[in-house]
Amino acid sequence: MKKIIIFFMFLLFLGCKKGHFKENLNVGNGVSNSINGVSNKYLSTTDFLVPFSSFKNKIKNKNNETKVKRGIIIPVYFYDKTLWDKVIYADIDEILIINPFNGPGDNIDSNYEEFISKLVLNSKKPIGYVYTKWGNRPIEEVKDDIDRWLVFYPDIKGFFLDEAASGNDKINYYIEIKNYIKSKGDYFIVLNPGVTPDKSYFDIADNIVVLENNISAVNDINCSYSDKSSVIVYGAQESQMEEIVKKYDCKYVYVTDDSLPNPYDTLPNYFGEEINALK
Questions:
Q1: Please, what is the end-to-end C-alpha distance for the chain in angstroms?
Q2: Is it the case that residue 99 has pLDDT exceeding 50?
Q3: Which of 7, 30, 107, 208 has its CA 20 to 30 A from that of 79?
């Protein structure tokens, strides 16, 4: 950042010296700037700043390669306030999948209300679980779950559409759900086909779980759409978690040593180490 500031000041100095800013400096509105091929010799100070903003979700690794700035996506399928506190106060970008009863349930749970509220206050992103049976669940049932989430837990920030289809033959089903959700507000949508879907799905969702499986399936991870992809892996040792984090450049990652039948009923023993590895 220091180098950027120095570079900017140097350019400003040159501009002033040559008279380019003498009478035409107008911070913030790009006076006489060249836009869409309309040429002009003058630049505003913001013209130097715009290119840097495009990197706000990027980081550089030790080899100076641009990588996605990553976070963690956690299926919070446990009812333990001690563990809830760990995710509330974890120092990382988080998506938390909330699932009271295979969806929002039939009644409001005050503990979940409090949990979701604390997540939001700590700049986390709680999203509500909704299953879709690979595009075969009646769409009115899906919409009903969405509505109940918004009535019971209005602080929710998005939806996790589980058991999502991956083939293009079901794309219209998910387009309708996406449009329904977005008609309610700018909610974040995560699809979980558990595999890499047809590329058309990346136009629907804000993020897609391109792999949800045990550690034996990690070679199937495909982060081609890195900024819109997530990976969830269970049954992994700490060293395997570190290798996944290092090797695959998906936006959100969750690796746990928990196992079936419910690999998401607790946090991994190396939760703190995983947070640090993802930073």
A1: 18
A2: yes
A3: 208
Question: If you average pLDDT over every residue of the chain, what do you get?
Answer: 83
Residues 230, 209: contact at Cβ < 8 Å?
A: yes
Residues 86-107, buried b or exposed e (16+ Cβ, 10 A)?
ebbebeebbbbbbbbeebbbee
Model pLDDT for residues 11-70, shown as the tens digit of each residue: 444 444 444 333 333 333 332 233 333 333 333 333 333 333 333 444 444 444 446 789
Cα–Cα distance measured from residue 115 to residue 81, given in angstroms and rounded to the nearest whole number: 8
pLDDT score at 14: 45
Residue that wins the pLDDT comparison between 97 and 39: 97
Length of the chain: 279
Report how far residue 69's alpha carbon sits from residue 57's, in angstroms, rounded to the nearest whole number.
Answer: 5
H or E element, residue 92: none
Q: Alpha-carbon distance 205 to 143, whole Å?
A: 16
Angle between helix 81-88 and 110-121 (nearest 10): 20
| Strands 188-192 and 207-214, bridge-based pairing | parallel
Q: Are strands 158-162 and 188-192 parallel, antiparallel or unpaired?
A: parallel
pLDDT at 67: 65
Strands 58-60, 66-68: pairing kind: antiparallel
| Preceding omega of 261 cis (within 30 degrees of 0) | yes
Q: List the Cα angle 134/138/141 in 5-degree steps.
A: 110
* Sign of the Cα pseudo-torsion (118, 121, 122, 123, in order): positive
